[in-house]
Each structure stands twice: as structure tokens, then as C-alpha cells.
Amino acid sequence: MKIAIAGTGYVGLSIGLLLAQKNSVVAVDIIPEKIELLNKNLSPIKDSEIEEFLKRDDIDFKATLDKDEAYKDADFVVIATPTDYDPITNYFNTKSIEAVVEDVLKINPKTIIVIKSTIPIGYTDSLKKKYGVDNIMFSPEFLREGCALYDNLHPSRIIVGQKSDTAKKFASLLKDSAIKKEIPVLLTNSKEAEAIKLFANTYLAMRVAYFNELDSFAEQNELNPEDIIKGVGLDPRIGTHYNNPSFGYGGYCLPKDTKQILANFKNSSTPAPLIKAIVKSNQTRKEFLVQNILKRLENKTKPTVGIHRLIMKSGSDNFRSSAISDIIEILKQNKIDLSIYEPVLDSESFEGIKVSKKLEEFKNSSDIIVSNRLDDELLDVKEKVYTRDIFGSDK
Predict the structure, then answer these.
(1) Mean pLDDT over residues 73-80, rounded?
(2) Is 39 buried (19+), middle (13-18) or exposed (0-12) by CB count in 10 A?
(3) Quick check: is 251 in a domain?
(4) Total domain count for the chain?
(5) Which of 83, 186, 272, 289 could form a disulfide with 265 if both were Cys (CB 3.0 to 4.6 A apart)?
(6) 350-370: pLDDT as tens digits
(7) Among 193, 218, 215, 201, which residue's Cα sits nearest to residue 278?
(8) 253 flagged as catalytic
């Protein structure tokens, strides 16, 4: 089959390369630099499996800026464009999806359009009504940054928001290209599929917020958070996974998805005290941590706080909605001098703050080093480091 992928971020690239094992895949993007890299078999994002697959000879994959080339004669068009949450409208910004749909309907109106971008509940039905078509469906993705292709090769589940033979066909494409053999497949109506995505991510955000609040209590009351978390996790209903304290949940999905599900609750006039608490807890955690950082600086004259890495987590190159960004903003509001160490950032400054590329210089100039995840390169100055990383894991 010929499959077109609109968007070459984590979602689009990982799905495209997954399907390119057994199909002809053409990825289209609007950024020339990304297309150039991909056609040189280089990945524009950090993901070891994506980097490996791009170098394989048996992958039928190409990238283009030409929409006609991508969409013409495609059996499926997968939309994986970004949908950031707009706080003014309390809604995902879905303009990029609609732009792709309009292009596809002009170029190849009979193809099947599959939305992989995260969208509000009810969006697929409204889109079909708006354009007077029935060949659009939603299939949520459940991928982690830095290992998106791995997660497509070993999916926890495959969900397609349509109960039809076409939906079964698309689910089979994903399943047949995976390494994992026993994969649960669930076909639902579109609204239910949209809700699954948002509620799943909100549950994960709740788990992050829960262990962060546990850690806050332990730090404030001089308790050992590692022992408490281990003891709590020994209950098999809770488990010992996804429990490492952090500066807060961040990244591409959890911040915007929790806000979108809260907006859906408000629009339906359904009470949502728990969802509200999850969103609020994430901000409260950052404010609490900054207060603890400031306490460590009380006896220092004109101290400098070093920020070690802007990335959301280890193995990622994403700064967007990283929890450390809010920590930086609150410290700036408190008139604290800051420096940043981020080797993957090309710029010499970030939000007006000097970015150092020399690690030793950064260590020496910082009175305290704030790090969401404790890296081995900081072990020699561990007494300077403020982190809440207990288990050295993002899982």
C-alpha cells in the first residue's frame, strides 16, 4: 500500500517508519531542513530506533515538501501534525489538521484519513460534518518521547475510533508491522477513542502528581521518600513503576491533555474536582520546589543558580512544556541570577539567560545546580545539586 504521513515529529516519523517495513510510505512536512535530513537518512529528532530504521535498506520511506506527491494515490493519509492547547479558547489548536484535510480532499478525496494528532472529544464527528465526508477516523497513539518507534513496535494496545472493516484494516497494518505479537485491538466509536487518549494521559499525570506530592510531604517533614514510595509500590494494585519524583509532568502530551479534558468537563457541566486538582497540583509542586531552592540560598550573597539541562527527561531533545521551564520562570520572578547548561541548544542564551556549553565552567560558577534528573556528570558536585530524582528513571 501507499501511505502518506503528514507531519514528521515523534508520532509521524515513528508510525511512518513502522509501516514502511511492509508498505510504501511518503512523509510530508513544511520544514525544508527536516525533509533534507530525512532524505539523507538522518533523524531530525532524538530516537535511537528511528535513527536505526532510517539507515536500513529494506525500508520503503521517503520525505517530501510536495503535498501532491505525498497524497496522490495514497490508500491512507495519516495526520500527525501538532495540536497545542490554546489557553484563550480552552481548546486544542486544530488548524494544522484542517489544513491537511482540505489538501487531501482536493488531491485524493477517496482516500482514508486517519488522525493521530491528539484532539478534543467530539472533534472527528465535527470534522466529518464540516466537510460533508465520512472517510475520516481517529486512532490515538500512546508513545513516549525518545522511544516512540520502540513503542510502535511493541504497542500496549491498538485503538481505532471506528467500528468498520476499514478500521480493522488500519489496525491490521499497525499490528502486522509490530514486533510484539499479542496486541490487544479495540475498535470504538470516535468520541470514545478520543476520550481514551485524554483520560489515559490524565491518569498518568495524576500518578506523577501523586508521587510528587508524596515527595513534597517527605521533604518538608524530613522523611525518606524512597522508603515510602517503595513501601507504597509493593501493593500490586499500585506497583513500582512510573513513581519517580520530578519537578512536575511536562512534555508534548500531559500538560495540554489534562487541560483539554478539563475543558471538556466544563463544556459538559460535569463536576471535575479530581481533574482540576491534577492540573493545580503540577503548578503547586513547582512553586514548592522553588521555595526550597530559595531556602538553600538564604546565606549567600548574589548567588547563581545553575540549570542543568532544559530537556524534559533523559533520552529526549524536547524543551517544550518541560517542567524546568516553569522553575526557571519562578526563579526569574524572584530576581535570582541564572545560568543554563544545555549542550543540544545552539543559541548562546535562552529566555535572556546565558547558556554555557562548558560543563566544568558551569559547575564552578553555580552556587546550586538544579537538575530534574541526576546525571552521572554531576556526581562530582553532588553536594551542589538540587534534584528530586530518587530512582534515576523516567518510567
Answers:
(1) 98
(2) middle
(3) yes
(4) 2
(5) 272
(6) 889 999 989 999 999 999 999
(7) 201
(8) yes
